[in-house]
Amino acid sequence: MKEQKTSRAVGHLFIISGPSGTGKTTLCSLVLSRMQDLLYSVSYTTRKPRRGEQDGIDYFFIEKTDFKRKIQNGRWAEWAKVHDNFYGTCADFIDKGLKSGHDILLDIDVQGTVQILKNYPESVTIFIMPPSLDILKKRLESRKTDSEGEIEQRLVNAANEIAQKNIYRHIIYNVNLSTTVVELTSLIEKYRHVPRLSNP
Ligand code: 5GP
Predict the structure, then answer these.
(1) Distances, alpha carbon 138 to alpha carbons 159, 171, 172, 184, in Å
(2) Tell me, what CATH number does 149's domain have?
(3) Mean pLDDT value of segment 132-136
(4) Residue 33 falls within a domain, yes or no?
(5) Can you give the pLDDT at residue 82?
(6) Ligand 1: does its nearest atom lie under 6 Å from the Cβ of 123?
């Protein structure tokens, strides 16, 4: 008898990108606090923790040698060098999560998004725009976490990322945080209402 294959529900992958300083991290944590069954993919990075950042919550902070070994072993769903540091998404976490029907949120850069789209073409990509580069500069200066040189580098990077924003399915301008949270949450909800089925 021919084996009957049935499709089953798999999770949605949501990718949030945008220049650093646009409020992405705050937005992601607000969205996650409103949707408790949405999983957050904690990235791995070789950058040093900033004040208040916790290992395993904000990032998994690892050494460059460890990061490079994981590249060789194919452990990343995507990885990129951003502002002289390496960042990566654990392939196992994504694959197991999606297969077991969980929806997952990723906060990664444009280079990473391009790689994810190759392997997970149905990902929902969302680009968060700052109201302007001037405002972005002011936000980066006021958070006092980066040196002048680092801010300059982040602004150059921001302009490059903004130039590629059209590869994203959705673009949201973060002018007012509370309005943006509502907009982002309802966008994600809309997709979550439609089940994704794996191919039989
Ligand atoms: P930050 O050092 O300010 O936390 O992050 C710098 C940039 O790296 C941000 O644009 C952030 O979205 C990006 N990023 C964080 N995690 C990952 C990751 O796992 N992969 C990629 N490609 N980018 C990441």
Answers:
(1) 15, 22, 20, 23
(2) 3.40.50.300
(3) 92
(4) yes
(5) 85
(6) no
Segments of the chain assigned E as strands? 9-10, 13-17, 38-40, 44-45, 60-61, 76-82, 85-90, 103-107, 124-129, 170-173, 196-197
Residue indicated by tokens 């208040």? 52
Does some domain include residue 154? Answer: yes
The whole-model pTM stands at: 0.93
Q: How many domains does the chain contain in total? A: 1
Q: Is the dihedral of CA 51, 54, 59, 62 positive or negative?
A: positive
Which of 10, 190, 31, 15 is CA-nearest to residue 102?
Answer: 10
Taking the centre of ligand 1 as the mean of its atom positions, its distance from the CA of residue 26, in whole angstroms, is 14
The answer as to whether 167 is a domain residue is: yes
Tens of pLDDT, residue by residue over 136-170, are 999 899 888 788 898 998 899 999 999 999 999 99
CA of 59 relative to ligand 1 center, distance in Å: 10
Is 121 a domain residue?
yes
Name the residue of 29, 76, 108 to mutate for ligand 1: max ligand atoms within 8 A of Cβ.
108
